[in-house]
Amino acid sequence: MNEQIQEVLALTNRWVKRLSREKFSMLFTLIQPMLFWLIFFGNLFQRAADVQVVQAPNYMSFLAAGVVVMTVLNNGLAGGVDLLFDKENGFLERLMATPIRRSSVILSRFLFVMAITAMQILVILGVAFLFGVSAETGILGIALILVIGMLFGVGLTAISMAMAFSVKSHGDFFSVLGFLSLPMIFLSSALVPLAAMPGWMKSLAFFNPMTWVIDAIRPLILTGWSEALPHVAIALVVLAVFDGLCLYGGARAFKRSVG
Amino acid sequence: MSDAVAIEVKGLGKTYDTVTAVKDLSLSVIQGEIFGLLGPNGAGKSTTLRILITTLSPTSGTATIFGHDVVKEADTIRRLIGYVPQERAIDRFLTGREHLLLLADLYHLPKNEALTRIASLLKLVDLDEHADRVAKGYSGGMKRKLDIACGLLPNPKVLFLDEPTLGLDVQSRLNIWQYLRQLREQGMTIVMTTNYLDEADQLCDRIAIIDRGEIRAIGSPKDLKASLGGDGVWLTLGDSEPQVVETLSTALKALPFVRAIRPTPQGLDIRVDAPEKALPAILETTNRVGCRLDGIEYHRPRLDDVFVAHTGRSLTDQPPEPTT
């Protein structure tokens, strides 16, 4: 057990080092979602969006939960990229020829992606605060937002890693990634509440786990505990199923790839 | 060199969906030798190597390292071996020292031991001055030195190297050979793949020639060359009548030190025992028969000839086969 902790910490440390050596990449990773979506999109639609429709004091406060989950989505889906490169250049093979538990590589990646995601969520909530949006449920609510976000992130990262281990080339990986992420956002309650969507989009969004996650986080920011808790409970059930499926698929892809 | 067996491979096979990468491969590596897997790209060398380092499972056959099965006792094997992949497997954002520190944790070395060993390895491969630069700026030779230091970090009983000098300049190449010879002196068993004939010839104690997934020949470079049957003399004959060449061939066959004669498109390929006697006699015979001689070439048997003899083609003619 001690040995596995040593392995996971060493491997996680490598991801941190890599990120810190890519200063620009780090900067843009951190500011992209909140800059683009929260500040631009939020302010742009501040007047265009009907507060009766979004059921929030203003569009920015409605959007905050969506941007939090979009960040989780982007980080999660990109979570396997570094493993993909490791697989392609042979670094993964170097790691696999050492006496480590096979799971350590995967665990280090989860740990790293979740840590980055948590930091980004905090930054987004901080920026939202600067624009006058603060979480109704306070510190405890923010902690719960982080937990829900990370539970969603685990499943997404597992999908991404499964893809990294299965694809023949990284071109395939990035096409699938690009294809997945925007529809996931538009077919969810991130930008518009389900009730305001055209019927066919609504039915698709209903089956998007992202919708349920956003619907749990939004009242934690907008209204308060009594409104939020039922949604949180539903989201936890959805996430249990979602994560279970993703982890199972991920484990199979990993086994097939590295034995 | 003791004759204890370090690696025993029996009937090893690896088949992907439709492609057979390695077929019924058997060999043994003796403790303390440098064993080379020689063959063109896609011949199955890397597949064999990957099975031995436990990162690929065979579809048939067995392989053991010091008695441990590479599939069933993979974790034990991983503690016995070091691996030097091809140079691309370097994280260009990490420094040389960070590569070694990472691996030290993966081999579960205690901190103090790790630090002393890393310092001495960096010195050994002459990288201590560059140890704290990120690998992005390393030359090919430096990356390969770092790779070797990484492979040696666990103090392995067997060191596996994948094309250790591919694409390196001559000086770096000689340095690498030098390290590997030093390691052999210390009793380490070394297994490497190569598609360089001179590397196999000068560095390896024994080689296995692999082509299209099968072993074509195994032995020391010297024995393999000797098995070709003598030194080679190539005659390039001018446009002589076929029956004149025939007469010459018969006359040469009668000479005591000529062992074999084979016609070639240009003339004749003659295998001889004692070149100092054979050459004048061959020239004299050619003149006597009245054959026009455009060229004569004499060479000691080369590994390339061995390769051609066993595979029917030269190692330098790379066939378009799928790499795995």
Structure, described:
The complex is a heterodimer of chains A (259) and B (324). Chain A has 259 residues and is mainly alpha-helical. Chain A has twelve helices and no strands. The mean pLDDT of chain A is 90. With 324 residues, chain B is of the alpha/beta class. Chain B is built from eleven helices and 14 strands.
Distance between the termini of chain B: 34 Å
Helix content of chain A: over 70%
Order of helices and strands of chain A: HHHHHHHHHHHH
- Report Rg of chain A: 19 Å
Number of helices of chain A: 12
Distance between the termini of chain A: 21 Å
Q: Tell me about the biggest sheet of chain B? A: 6 strands, mixed
Net shape of chain B = elongated
- Gyration radius of chain B, rounded: 24 Å
User: How many E strands of chain B?
Assistant: 14
Give the tally of β-strands of chain A: 0
The low-confidence parts of chain A are none
Q: Overall pLDDT of chain A, averaged? A: 90
How large is the share of residues in beta strands of chain B? 25-35%
- In round numbers, the mean pLDDT of chain B is 89
Major interchain interface with per-chain residue totals: A-B, 25 and 31 residues
| Global shape of chain A | globular
- For this entry, what is the oligomeric state of its chains? heterodimer
Short description:
The complex is a heterodimer of chains A (259) and B (324). Chain A has 259 residues and is mainly α.
Question: Topology, please?
Answer:
The complex is a heterodimer of chains A (259) and B (324).
Chain A: H1 2-21, H2 23-44, H3 51-54, H4 59-77, H5 81-89, H6 91-96, H7 103-130, H8 138-166, H9 170-186, H10 199-206, H11 209-222, H12 225-258
Chain B: E1 5-15, E2 20-30, E3 34-38, H1 45-52, E4 60-65, E5 68-69, H2 74-80, E6 81-84, H3 96-106, H4 111-124, H5 140-152, E7 158-162, H6 170-185, E8 189-194, H7 197-203, E9 206-211, E10 214-219, H8 221-226, E11 231-237, H9 242-253, E12 258-263, E13 267-272, H10 275-289, E14 293-299, H11 303-311
Parallel strand pairs in B: 3-8, 3-9, 6-7, 7-8
Antiparallel strand pairs in B: 1-2, 1-4, 4-5, 9-10, 11-13, 11-14, 12-13
Helix pairs in contact in B: 3-4, 9-10
